[in-house]
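Hi support team,

I've been running sequence recovery on a batch of backbones for a student project. Most finish fine, but this one hangs at about 90% for roughly twenty minutes before it completes. I'm not sure whether the input is malformed or the queue is just slow. I've pasted the structure tokens below so you can try to reproduce it. Let me know if you need the job ID as well.

Thanks,
M.K.
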């Protein structure tokens, strides 16, 4: 029996050894097979995750980002202890002890899965999650992937310290809404860096690791339950006290979403993006984390945004209520309570224009929902429409534009508005440097990416006259020289051309200063004929204008399509004492590692002699003091400028400057065949926008005189002599017009939302087919 028993035991032992050998061999074989296809862990030494390219304003504030993956890198020291403990407590309690695989947790998960007959519980360590996320297919959940993930995790643990692994994990993990890493997620969900997170906030971020079902925006209830579980686990492990845990679990999620939508200056940011991609390539801009220091001024940009919106809404109110509002109940009945709008995510402040939802309409008031805010719309709030009852305007379910006039807690007062039919653009340039401080390219970037400040080419009306008068002064003319304002017919391009004044009146012999201040058309054309069309074209080129200029007399009245940017930049020559500084948006570009890639120096060009520039400033000051720009006196400081209006009121301009800042405003319709309406001149449609912008933008800037500029009334023998200056200013809307189609085919660059273009017929000799007429 002993022998038999011994023989049986020996056979069993031999069989066990054979099985172990086979198992070991199979394991080694599988290890060899799987490791043969695995990436080299040493690649992590050169690994650089995609990071955000950040744009900064002139004071260092962030104004925009570009990224395929929104990620802001952290060092280990920047990860607060509270966040580290929240991550490890919920994802890998034995992170500091294991070597890539937590075998007790693996056995526990396996037993749990056996009991529940399925893969119900995971056992991936933090290192395994990192390795799998970096090197393996995220959607693959096969046994092979789990084995490969385990092997990679062991290799990662052999080559890197725990601090390095945790840092890579904290920068790599996806946390919803396009955010990778905890710093980007913290700024997005709570508008604060990770170093300022509370216990509740840190636990909320740690909860999102498990997947999108815990996204606090989409699934707030699940996110809060998971957050509370993380907090309770931290209290169980002694990471926080029971009192701290109890207080944190009672807190709301407290989201303060800060979406990287580049909302402050979207047109400016887009112009910068296009330049960066052209210079450095798309990959560098969206993946390598450039640091771009721009010229934009935040307060001036906010002033520009508000001024353009206020001006367009004021214009729209003048032309009445259009109605035809979208209504959410038309397609989705019963959605009043559940409806949400993207505009409601941010904070709602006084002065904002936002979309509101009409929830009820009574004979004397309507109730408006704006996120959590409720407002009551009374007849005084829509008196401009001419209606007496809200039932004549609105019905439940309508989406309306309102302006916030007062806001307190969850209630607000609003004024009824409508989305403007017209468009506007504004550019502001710092005179001493050529830096672009503000840019608005249209009413709503989300609706139209076409930048009307840099891409739209529109006829300039009488604002072009400055180049004619500057040419005359350079040729030796004086502001006190006279010119005849009487009917005249020129032979131009083989046809008769008879310019008219806006008021269809003639004043006889007047001085050049008076002719420019009142924007008289006939004198401007006579002056162009005298100084020579080609000389004016050459002069305009020196001002930095690159757009085509037709060589015909209607050029004096704006028969040339220019961009607002080049036209405004040209005006800076006058306050800059005759030099032109190239406008630019960038001060410095740096790599993510701090290497300076670019520090541009703008081109500076001599354009006109200083005495000519100073005389032009004095003449353009009189446009403000006595002429078509008289409303600009509301600014309360020295300024000069020029209005411009085209035939049929299709384009309205005002370009003005103070000693420090030059700003240009254009108002019109994208379809240039559509008029702004009768008497919608530059003085009426564009100048108020310029005034509002300048009042806000110049706050805190010292009031200064134009250096070395002597007012014209003091330039004759030291006496104040008013030569041909009107005793009273003309009405604000009695401005001038140039022409729209008289200068040849209208041109515009292709927009995202195409402009409707119209061309005037042009004779075979190239002369303009129509003449500019003031109406």
């Amino acid at each position: 029996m002993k022998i038999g028993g011994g023989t049986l035991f020996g056979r069993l032992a031999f069989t066990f050894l054979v099985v172990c050998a086979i198992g070991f061999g199979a394991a080694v074989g599988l290890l060899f097979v799987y490791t043969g296809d695995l990436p080299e862990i040493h690649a992590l030494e050169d690994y650089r995750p995609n990071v955000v390219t950040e744009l900064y304003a002139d004071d260092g504030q962030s104004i925009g980002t570009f990224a395929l993956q929104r990620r802001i890198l952290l060092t280990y020291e920047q990860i607060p202890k509270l966040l580290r403990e929240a991550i490890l407590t919920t994802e890998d309690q034995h992170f500091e002890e294991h070597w890539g695989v937590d075998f007790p947790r693996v056995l526990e998960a396996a037993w749990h899965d056996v009991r529940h007959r399925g893969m119900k519980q995971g056992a991936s360590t933090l290192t395994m999650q990192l390795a799998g996320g970096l090197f393996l297919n995220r959607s693959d959940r096969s046994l092979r992937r789990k084995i490969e993930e385990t092997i990679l995790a062991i290799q990662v643990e052999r080559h890197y310290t725990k601090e390095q692994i945790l840092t890579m994990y904290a920068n790599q993990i996806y946390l919803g809404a396009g955010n990778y890493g905890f710093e980007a997620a913290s700024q997005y969900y709570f508008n604060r860096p990770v170093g300022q997170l509370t216990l509740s906030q840190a636990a909320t971020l740690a909860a999102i690791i498990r997947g999108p079902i815990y996204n606090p925006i989409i699934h707030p209830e699940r996110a809060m339950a998971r957050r509370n579980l993380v907090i309770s686990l931290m209290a169980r492990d002694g990471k926080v006290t029971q009192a701290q845990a109890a207080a944190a679990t009672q807190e709301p999620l407290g989201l303060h979403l800060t979406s990287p939508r580049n909302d402050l200056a979207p047109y400016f940011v887009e112009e910068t993006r296009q330049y960066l991609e052209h210079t450095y390539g798309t990959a560098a801009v969206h993946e390598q984390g450039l640091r771009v220091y721009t010229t934009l001024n935040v307060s001036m940009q906010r002033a520009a945004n508000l001024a353009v919106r206020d001006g367009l809404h004021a214009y729209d109110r003048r032309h009445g209520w259009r109605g035809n509002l979208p209504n959410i109940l038309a397609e989705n009945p019963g959605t009043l309570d559940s409806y949400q709008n993207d505009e409601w995510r941010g904070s709602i402040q006084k002065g904002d224009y936002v979309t509101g939802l009409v929830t009820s309409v009574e004979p004397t008031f309507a109730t408006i929902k704006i996120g959590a805010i409720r407002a009551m719309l009374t007849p005084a709030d829509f008196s401009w429409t001419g209606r007496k009852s809200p039932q004549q305007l609105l019905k439940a379910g309508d989406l309306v534009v309102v302006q916030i006039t007062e806001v307190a807690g969850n209630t607000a007062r609003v004024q009824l508005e409508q989305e403007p039919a017209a468009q506007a653009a504004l550019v502001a340039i710092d005179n001493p440097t050529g830096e672009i401080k503000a840019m608005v390219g249209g009413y709503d970037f989300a609706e139209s990416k076409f930048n009307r400040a840099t891409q739209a080419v529109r006829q300039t009306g009488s604002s072009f006259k400055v180049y004619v008068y500057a040419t005359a002064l350079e040729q030796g003319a004086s502001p006190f020289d006279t010119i005849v304002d009487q009917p005249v017919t020129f032979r131009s391009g083989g046809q008769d051309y008879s310019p008219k004044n806006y008021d269809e009146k003639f004043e006889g012999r007047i001085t050049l200063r008076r002719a420019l201040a009142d924007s008289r058309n006939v004198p401007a054309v006579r002056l162009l004929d005298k100084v020579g069309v080609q000389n004016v074209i050459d002069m305009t080129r020196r001002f930095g204008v690159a757009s085509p200029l037709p060589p015909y007399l209607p050029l004096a009245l704006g028969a040339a399509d220019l961009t607002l940017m080049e036209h405004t930049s040209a005006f800076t020559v006058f306050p800059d004492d005759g030099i032109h500084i190239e406008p630019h948006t960038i001060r410095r570009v740096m790599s993510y590692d701090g290497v300076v890639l670019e520090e541009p120096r703008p081109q500076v060009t001599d354009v006109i002699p200083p005495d000519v520039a100073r005389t032009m400033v004095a003449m353009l000051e009189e446009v403000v003091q006595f002429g078509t720009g008289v409303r600009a006196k509301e600014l309360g400081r020295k300024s000069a400028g020029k209005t411009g209006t085209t035939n049929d009121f299709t384009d309205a301009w005002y370009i003005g400057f103070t000693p420090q800042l030059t700003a240009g405003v254009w108002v019109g319709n994208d379809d240039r065949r559509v008029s702004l309406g009768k008497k919608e001149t530059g003085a009426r449609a564009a100048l108020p926008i310029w005034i509002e912008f300048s009042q806000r933008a110049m706050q805190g800037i010292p009031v200064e005189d134009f250096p070395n500029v002597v007012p014209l009334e003091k330039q004759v023998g030291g006496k104040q002599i008013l030569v041909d200056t009107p005793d009273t200013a003309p009405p604000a809307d009695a401005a001038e017009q140039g022409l729209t189609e008289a200068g040849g085919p209208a041109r515009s660059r292709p927009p995202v939302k195409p402009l409707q273009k119209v061309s005037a017929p042009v004779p075979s000799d190239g002369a303009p087919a129509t003449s500019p007429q003031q109406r």
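--
Follow-up from support: It reproduced on our side and the slowdown came from queue contention, not your input. Confidence is low (pLDDT under 50) at residues 1-5, 26-38, 717-775. No action needed from you.
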